[in-house]
Amino acid sequence: MKNENFLKANNARHMWHPMVHPADSLKNEPKIITGGKGVRITDVDGSETIDAVGGLWNVNLGYSADVIKDAITQQLQQLPYYSTFRGTSNDAVIELSYMLREFFEPDGLSRAFFTSGGSDSVEIALRLARQYHKIRGETGRTKYFSIKKGYHGTHTGGASVNGNANFRTQYEPLMPGCFHIPAPYTYRNQFNETDPAKLTQMCLAAFEEEIAFQGASTIAAFIMEPVLGAGGVIVPHESFMPGIRAICDKHGILLIADEVITGYGRTGSWSGSRHWGVKPDFSCTAKAITNGYFPFGAVMISDKVVEVFENDETGKAAIGSGYTYSGHPVGAAAAIACLKETERLKVNENAAARGDEMMAGLVELGKKHDVIGDVRGGEGLMNALELVSDAKTKTPLDAATIAKIHETIYANGVMVRVSGPNLILSPPLVLTSDDVQQILKALDAGFSAA
Description:
By secondary structure, the protein is of the alpha/beta class. It contains 15 helices and 16 strands.
């Protein structure tokens, strides 16, 4: 490996980083991670920290899941690649599809369409939703609805249904026919409503009003995260997703659950949809499906949709979407091993228990530090702290102070993620109680430094 001086000098000189201004990467030296073990990572200077970001919401089992590494190695030796396009398949992906059908059976999902990641999965679900209606003769159903503050990846379709301007404005015009309803975000919302149940009813009413205006016969699908992740860990009231499901059923609209973050135990349930007692028509998954060790994803498809596609006699159900790496045998082997280990360790139960400890500690920090305007989470291991300079006006904290907080937290042995005025926590689901306390202690030090 090149020495640390070479790595630091060349990081942003020959590559652009995602989600940041290229000049910022040149000006501000990034954390260069060179190792990982358990829930901890090591940087180029030898500093070890708890990775409270979990890679990017995806390293649920930490960095020492040898069963997945061994499965990847074995599959590379046996069959490093073959496509699943028409007429060919591979043994690993067939086994995985069987396992996923069993895993998602309580969600009413029985078929998988494999992708290379979350953005791919969203794109496929959007396409299949339109195709579903065309097969049924409702060719006018082309529009999509989603939630403001929601995040659905970076492809043109995903960016079009994204509810955050940061991922949209520089790439507009995007795909037409995409509309957004208010987010169930009690800390900031257009209704100035702080009661989660009441806010939910207002958001649902806004959805109904927009359906009436657009015409139900023009709408293909509603896409949502069961818990809004990148938008700041916005946890809806328990009635929100069931309410969306009921409205969709009433008007013949398909429901796409974006479970790229919430799938495989993150919320304390095996899926975010199951957490709220909802059965979606499509479920987009990726990230933790291989613990981040291989780029891979899967769209899970409901029995209702399956019946329409598989019983079609017109030829309209022929699928014209796919990726070179759909059903990649190495990714499939990694996913098989990951799914077995995920279930063996019962990480959903640990996520729920450690999540309760984390939330309790964060609430206490919120009482102690005025800079913490809002504490969010409480459903498994996903939390956000929204930082403000004035609690009454909810004025977002300035970037320089947030950067100081972030650096102090890192110096105290914890990596967290900054997203606007939010500090986001999405640690591995194998976190221990001692790890939780170390994270809380480092956060306390960071806020004290502010």
